[in-house]
Amino acid sequence: MTEFVDLQQRVTSFRLNIRTKETGNSHPIGDLRSIFSASDSICKRRQLRPDSEWKEKSFKSDEGKKPGFLIDSGDNIGSNDGYVEEVVQNSWERADVEAERAFINQYILDQTNLTDNVNRYTVKGVAGVSVKSKVSNKVFEKQMELYAKNISNSLESDCLASNHGAVVEAVESMNDKEVTQLWGSVLPLLSLDSADIGDAELYRSSEKWINFVLQRSTFYLQQMYKEFMETIVESNMELAQRGGVPGVLPLIEAYLNVTLPDFEFQDGVYGKHPVWPVLYNLLRCGESQLAAKVVKTLSSIPNCAVLVGCILNCCDSGLDADKRLKLNAEWKHEGAHCSDPFKRAVYAIFLGIECPEVTDSIENWLWVKLMQCKLDATNGKTQFRKTQTTVCVDCGEDYFVKNGGSYSLYFTALWLTGQIERSIELLYRSGMAHHAVHISILAQQKGLLILGRRVSEFILTQDEKDPIFCRLNFAKLLLLYVKNFELENVEYALNYCFFLKDLYFDKETAGGGNIFEGCVSRLCFISHQTDVILGRLTESGDVQPGLIERFKAAVNTSDIINRVARDSDISGETLTACRLFLMIKRASDAFKLCSKHLVSLISQGTSENRKKEGSEETLKLAYWLLGLKNVDLDVTLKRELERLIQLNIFSAASLTDPFKALRTLQEMKLIPFSNDEMSIRVSDYTLVSDRVKEVMHHVIITLFKVLVQLSRNGSEYSRSDLKQISKVVLLFVAEVNCRFPVHLNSQILQLQSQI
């Protein structure tokens, strides 16, 4: 991380310094080289692309030499200040792009190897038998594929809609009991209306959120308890003697036939069983109305009159301070000689005291704790925070996972106490990253996630003063998950990156750009599937949409394509950038980039680095651009491109056909070949674009090499004619106030002597 911070700080500092008047005329070649060196070394080391794909400019600052461009004091290429400013701007932009890509890549490469061991969720928790199973890679990959496919279909249908239905459908398709149970605990807390949330941090600390968690979590645990009783009864049909009678009371009676322990009961029976076990199990199932019906049988017992009134009237609203005071006084009198553990448990639920006799599993303990918070109308919020602290701090991972527990069980305890960020991080860390990611996506779409402040942070950051309060690095979590798809299925990778459309990189370490845009740019870069992702331009000029088109209702796809085009140009993929600009109707940018690429080809001149294939592709694109109709374009850009095409033809011909090269340059009427042409060429030179002037020193050098070849090989030109042409050209250079670098001046004089 220090590499990225150091790189960005040096680039930013250098950029600011170079803009000041005092340093505007300096030539900071050493700093530029260090910037490029740092950026290149980081990206190469992170294996972003092979060395052969790097296109670097050579900067020399030898004493006594000017930079390799034409310097003019009049209407020429531009001042030294302008050149340095352009170089610095390009360097800064390139460093930004490479640092951002390397920043993303760092977190992908630094992913922790997670175990494939996934613990099964058990209804009885630590009191039951914890059954572990290894999820095979094949099953794991199938689950990931189902998630990704359903997400893809959902986004393609409507990228603005929630992906809740798509995820639920994927879970159902998995046909896995463990996964179904896991999501069974998750979905209740994701059933709220996102319009009521607003600011996640404020909402999550409000009583409205706490009441929602208490209501939904207790309901889930109550439904799970019913299912658990059904399982016990069905496994012991003969002993249970249910008789096929539907309803909760018959279920409880059958369940008690199997499980009721032998101890001293109090206050009579209801049906065939002691009244307090029946009453407790009705409350445990959330059947408050049936509980009120049963508790009426205790109305004649004065010792528990206050409790009877609470069950009749306060199961939904909770106990105020006055009722709690009266109930506490009643329990002090009654509890001293209470021998019925279920009677003690019912009092405990309303008074917030411990009842170890019935909290024999994590689920039962958690339900009791949540019900105690729910029934405390005065201090419920405080009690809820204490319960959260007990789960995540006092007990923690060691308690829930060891001694027959499981990660799934700990996740459920965290999730049902409203600790969303901590539970997602646990799930990710325990080998169930694919579930963690999709839970976080749905929570983020609901607006429930409390996000980390910086992408460079850990996945989970805990507040130093409040151990309960955590932030989830949602962006980092998804970036790690995208690693599974980015080289094999760019569609899936792009879909998951889309969920980061509203988040931004750290300004200090990665430029502060939009994460989704950065991810799209990187995907195009490493997958080489730009056409698939962004679309392609046909020969007729029509646009065939890419995968990005499915997101046009949520993001400005033109801005994203523009971003990728500029990044491609900075990375040296100028032709790709050209086509992308044309796709978004930015013909002027396309023409400028094509001209820029032609300039780079001319600058390669007759060296071995000049690639014929790249030259032909560039010229083909240039001709195609010139042939476009109904394009709103400055005529000077078109004229500039035409001249650069001709100069490329001249440069290429100089290698094989010097006579053709000379004729091409003559037809351009850019340089005089006789004294009669001098005045008009000097006058016209003021209208020549900066791009063309930028390569004039290459053109002049190449021209002199052509003259040397013609003088040696024999042609229709005599040596005296060729010498005269060279003199006229040199006079022209002097007339337009062009000054060559010293080493080029020497080379020209040497070539002239060989004619």
UniProtKB/TrEMBL annotation:
GO cellular component, one term: nuclear pore
The keyword Coiled coil is assigned to this record: no
Location of the protein in the cell: Nucleus, Nuclear pore complex
Broad class of where this protein is predominantly found: nucleus
Keywords: Membrane, mRNA transport, Nuclear pore complex, Nucleus, Protein transport, Translocation, Transport
GO molecular function, one term: structural constituent of nuclear pore
Family per similarity comment: Belongs to the nucleoporin interacting component (NIC) family.
PANTHER family named in the record: NUCLEAR PORE COMPLEX PROTEIN NUP93 (PTHR11225:SF4), NUCLEAR PORE COMPLEX PROTEIN NUP93 NUCLEOPORIN NUP93 DEAD EYE PROTEIN (PTHR11225)
Name the UniProt record assigns to this protein: Nuclear pore protein
